[in-house]
Every structure is written in structure tokens, then in C-alpha cells.
């Protein structure tokens, strides 16, 4: 299938995901560059509160959000390797284009958007700002490249085409299932203290766990009794529920409280065990 049959250009929409936060002017500078280059494009801020340099968290958040966004150029910058020999890339997926560092941040979202049709390394400075800082490629390279793509630039003009097999990909999170028991890495802890696991609804079925089952949740030395349910209100206030969340992942929550605080978990490094 050819690129012209799978990728729509120009784009009216752009999404923007970073670990920049909002206490500095980094986000404004990038959006200013976008507005000056593509004044008609509308920008959706996915989040700028990815924990600093947490590439996996940014990748997970972006991949879980993009299915609900309009066709867009998606710019994501969580880039601890900025200024090194890591590549800047543009990925053409069936349902969108992604721009950012080649560090695993973009590939999960590209797969969600229908798979990678083509990939390009950003090597042509014609589409960057005239002066490029070694530490702010979000402003000086990724934002202007994305804006030019939104304007309809042929992505083949950005630099050489890459073999998608050479792209950096993050290791698969740990998931292990047996009858009555499963283990899973923590993917995300949200602002409510809900703990999203890499395990999915399919893993619950594979473990033979049924709604209403009484579970023991373990994370390190922490132990939390919980009920397998469908929503927070399935348990009394201050009690724990394990449920399939809105992204089809298993999550541990406390009704009116914080499961993350009780379990003392950290995304990406903590393994949670559920036992019936």
C-alpha cells in the first residue's frame, strides 16, 4: 500500500506530548514555532506532565490517547538523549504522522494508529529553525518539522527513509499468568492513585479469575486485599477493587483513596502480583 493511500495531508490538527511541564516557557516556545509555520493548525495538548525523562510513561500515555484524536501530526518529546547521536524521526502510520526522537517514544502509538507505513530520519535542516540548540530539539527541529508536515510537506523531503526494523523499541513489560495468579509490571499511576498494570482483560480470563473474586494484591512487602470488580463503587469506601480500566488494562484502585500510596509502587519498576 502506497504512502499516498494511507496518509492524509495537509492536517488540520496536531497533538503535543512532552515532559516539559508548564512552569517554564518550553511548551509556549514550541507552540509559537508551530503557529508561525502552520497558523491554521489546531493543537491538542495530550500532556506536558510526563515525569521527566520517563520515555516509557510518555509512550504509554500517547498510545492510549491517539485512538480518540482526529487525524493529526503527533509531536512527542521525552528526550533524555537530546544532542547525542540518537536520531530524530518522522513515522508515517496509516492514520497519522508522528514526529520526535527515536528512543521508543513513538512506536507504540504508531502501531495503534494502524502500523508504520514508512519512517524517515530528520536530516534536512531546511525544515528546522535556523539556529538549533543542542538541548532543545523540541523547539528547533521537531516543532517546525511537524508544522511543515501539517502544511502538506512530502515527508520524503525530511531525510532518508529508514527501515522500521531499525527503530528503537522499548522492552515489553513483564506479564506472567497461571491459574489463579498473575504478575504484571506497573504501567501508569494516575493523579487519583489508581495503578494501571500491563496486564489486560485477556490475562484476567487466562488466569481464570471471575468477577467478585477475592484477591490479594502484593507489591514488594505491601499487601492489599481487593475484589475483582468493574468499577470503584463495587466496593465500600476505602476498600480496594481490581478492574479492567478504560484502556483495557487491569488496574488496582481504592474507592476514595490511593492504591499507589498503599502499595508504594513506581511505574516501570514495580511488579504487582494478584492471587485469588
How would you concisely characterize the structure shown here?
This protein has 276 residues and is of the alpha+beta class. The protein contains seven helices and 15 strands.
Write the layout of secondary structure elements.
Blueprint: H1 3-6, E1 13-18, H2 26-37, E2 42-47, H3 55-65, E3 73-77, E4 88-93, E5 96-101, H4 107-112, E6 116-121, H5 137-150, E7 161-162, E8 175-178, E9 181-189, E10 195-200, H6 201-206, E11 214-219, E12 222-228, E13 240-244, E14 249-254, H7 259-263, E15 271-275
Parallel strand pairs: 1-2, 1-3, 3-5, 12-13
Antiparallel strand pairs: 4-5, 4-6, 6-7, 8-9, 9-10, 9-15, 10-14, 11-12, 11-15, 13-14
Helix pairs in contact: 2-5
Textual characterization of the structure:
- Belongs to the SAM hydrolase / SAM-dependent halogenase family.
- InterPro entries: SAM_HAT_C, SAM_HAT_N, SAM_OH_AdoTrfase, SAM_OH_AdoTrfase_C_sf, SAM_OH_AdoTrfase_N_sf.
- Keywords: S-adenosyl-L-methionine.
- Pfam families: SAM_HAT_C, SAM_HAT_N.
- This protein is an alpha+beta fold.
- The strands form 2 sheets. A 7-stranded mixed sheet has the order 2-1-3-5-4-6-7. It has a 7-stranded mixed beta barrel with strand order 9-10-14-13-12-11-15.
- Residues about 1-5 have low confidence and may be disordered.
- Helix 2 packs parallel to helix 5 (about 135-150).
- The radius of gyration is 20 Å and the shape is elongated.
- It folds into 2 domains: about 5-165, 3-Layer(aba) Sandwich (Rossmann fold), CATH 3.40.50.10790; about 175-275, Bacterial fluorinating enzyme like (Elongation Factor Tu (Ef-tu), domain 3, Beta Barrel).
- It is about 20% helix and about 30% strand.
Amino acid at each position: 500500500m502506497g504512502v499516498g493511500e494511507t496518509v492524509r495531508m495537509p492536517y488540520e490538527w496536531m497533538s503535543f506530548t512532552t515532559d516539559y511541564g508548564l512552569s517554564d516557557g518550553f511548551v509556549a516556545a514550541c507552540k509559537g514555532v508551530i503557529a508561525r509555520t502552520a497558523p491554521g493548525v489546531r493543537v491538542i495538548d495530550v500532556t506536558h506532565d510526563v515525569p521527566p525523562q520517563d520515555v516509557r510513561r510518555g509512550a504509554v500515555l500517547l498510545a492510549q490517547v491517539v485512538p480518540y484524536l482526529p487525524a493529526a501530526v503527533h509531536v512527542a518529546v521525552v528526550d533524555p538523549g537530546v544532542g547525542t547521536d540518537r536520531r530524530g524521526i518522522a513515522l508515517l502510520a496509516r492514520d497519522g504522522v508522528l514526529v520526535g526522537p527515536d528512543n521508543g517514544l513513538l512506536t507504540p502509538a504508531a502501531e495503534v494508529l494502524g502500523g508504520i507505513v514508512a519512517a524517515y530520519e530528520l536530516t534536512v535542516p531546511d525544515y528546522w529553525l535556523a539556529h538549533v540548540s543542542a538541548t532543545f530539539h523540541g523547539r528547533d527541529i521537531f516543532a517546525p518539522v511537524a508544522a511543515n508536515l501539517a502544511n502538506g510537506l512530502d515527508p520524503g523531503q525530511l531525510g532518508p527513509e529508514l527501515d522500521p526494523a531499525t527503530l528503537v523499541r522499548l522492552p515489553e513489560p513483564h506479564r506472567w499468568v497461571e491459574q489463579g495468579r498473575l504478575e504484571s509490571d506497573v504501567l501508569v499511576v494516575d493523579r487519583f492513585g489508581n495503578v494501571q498494570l500491563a496486564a489486560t482483560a485477556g490475562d484476567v480470563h487466562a488466569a481464570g479469575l471471575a468477577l467478585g473474586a477475592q484477591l490479594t494484591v502484593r507489591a514488594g512487602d505491601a499487601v492489599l486485599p481487593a475484589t475483582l470488580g468493574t468499577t470503584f463503587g463495587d466496593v465500600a469506601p476505602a476498600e480496594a477493587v481490581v478492574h479492567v480500566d478504560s484502556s483495557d488494562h487491569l488496574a488496582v484502585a481504592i474507592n476514595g483513596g490511593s492504591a499507589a500510596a498503599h502499595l508504594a509502587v513506581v511505574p516501570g519498576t514495580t511488579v504487582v502480583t494478584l492471587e485469588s
